[in-house]
């Protein structure tokens, strides 16, 4: 396959992600070794600008080409269940409807920051679908899956990835969910 449009990173210069492991959380680096990593670019950013709006504004990256990965949790019969949702930054995951039903819990909510960091091995504000725990469902909005490339976290606050949507949709436990984003 051809290299994706790393231009979604705006004014930043991207390199193949595995060329800069210092910009990746450990689980992300491990997972990339199992993927077609040449299609994934990484760029270094100011960690104070890792939040999507600040990143896009500062680096001239189009907001509609950014995707957010949110960790959702809920309990059923006393068992805590996690899932991850990836939606375009211009939308929100339907946590109280679609996610709650798919996770099969009475109440679903964003996982507390400390829990999300502990269970993913990634930095808050940089959590990414690449390298998540293998037993989690990963739900991806169609707009993300169909994108030639989107900007996502690198597992750290000092890097951003440019990843083709089809690569995200092919991750283990990934499924494209038509009504995930609103």
TrEMBL record:
Record-given protein name: Prolyl-tRNA editing enzyme YbaK/EbsC (Cys-tRNA(Pro) deacylase)
Domain YbaK/aminoacyl-tRNA synthetase-associated: 47-167
InterPro entries: YbaK/aa-tRNA-synt-asso_dom_sf, YbaK/aa-tRNA-synth-assoc-dom
Domain of life: Bacteria
Record Pfam families: tRNA_edit
Residues in the signal sequence: none
CDD domains to which the protein is assigned, alphabetical: PA2301
């Amino acid at each position: 396959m051809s290299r994706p449009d790393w231009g979604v990173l705006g004014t930043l210069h991207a390199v193949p992600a595995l060329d800069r492991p210092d910009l990746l959380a450990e689980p992300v680096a491990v997972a990339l070794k199992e993927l077609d990593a040449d299609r994934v670019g990484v760029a270094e950013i100011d960690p104070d600008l890792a939040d999507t709006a600040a990143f896009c504004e500062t680096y001239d990256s189009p907001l509609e080409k950014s995707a957010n990965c949110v960790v959702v949790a809920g309990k059923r019969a006393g068992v805590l269940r996690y899932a991850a949702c990836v939606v375009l930054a211009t939308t929100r995951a339907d946590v109280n409807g679609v996610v709650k039903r798919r996770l099969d819990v009475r109440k679903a909510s964003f996982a507390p920051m400390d829990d999300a960091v502990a269970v993913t091995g990634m930095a808050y504000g940089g959590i990414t679908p690449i390298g998540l725990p293998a037993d989690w469902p990963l739900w991806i909005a169609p707009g993300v899956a169909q994108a030639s490339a989107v900007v996502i976290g690198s597992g750290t606050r000092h890097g951003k990835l440019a990843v083709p949507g089809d690569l995200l949709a092919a991750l283990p436990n990934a499924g494209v969910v038509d009504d995930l984003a609103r």
